[in-house]
Amino acid sequence: MGLTPPDGKMRARGPYQPFLAEPRICTGAGFAMVEGVVLLAMLARAYWFDLIVGRALPRSVAHLTLLSANGIWLNITQR
């Protein structure tokens, strides 16, 4: 079993791997960022968001995005 296949033509030693030569990124990242802004705008247009009285204000936990330590408790009502 060598590098010469049955048809007699020589093949390259390694497989064709076009994405391994450059840094990899998500091709849909730009679309996802735009989609998130549009979704947030649609929700803000259709609903009122109010903090629930009696609950502590959310404490931010630093990550790539901001998260709340115990969730964010909201009353959501349709406009």
Could you explain how this protein is built, in words?
The protein has a domain at 48-79. Helices cover 23% and strands 20% of the residues. It contains one helix and four strands; from the N terminus they run H-E-E-E-E. The strands form two sheets. The chain has a two-stranded antiparallel ribbon with strand order 1-4.
Helix content: 10-25%
Estimate the global geometry from the Cα principal axes: elongated
Our count of helices gives 1
Structural class based on helices, strands and sheet pairing? alpha+beta
Q: Whole-number average pLDDT?
A: 76
SSE series: HEEEE
| CA-CA gap between termini | 71 Å
Low-confidence regions: none
**Rounded to an integer, what's the Rg over CA atoms?**
26 Å
**Got a strand count?**
4
The major beta sheet can be summarized as: 2 strands, antiparallel
Strand content: 15-25%
Can you list the strand order of the major beta sheet?
1-4
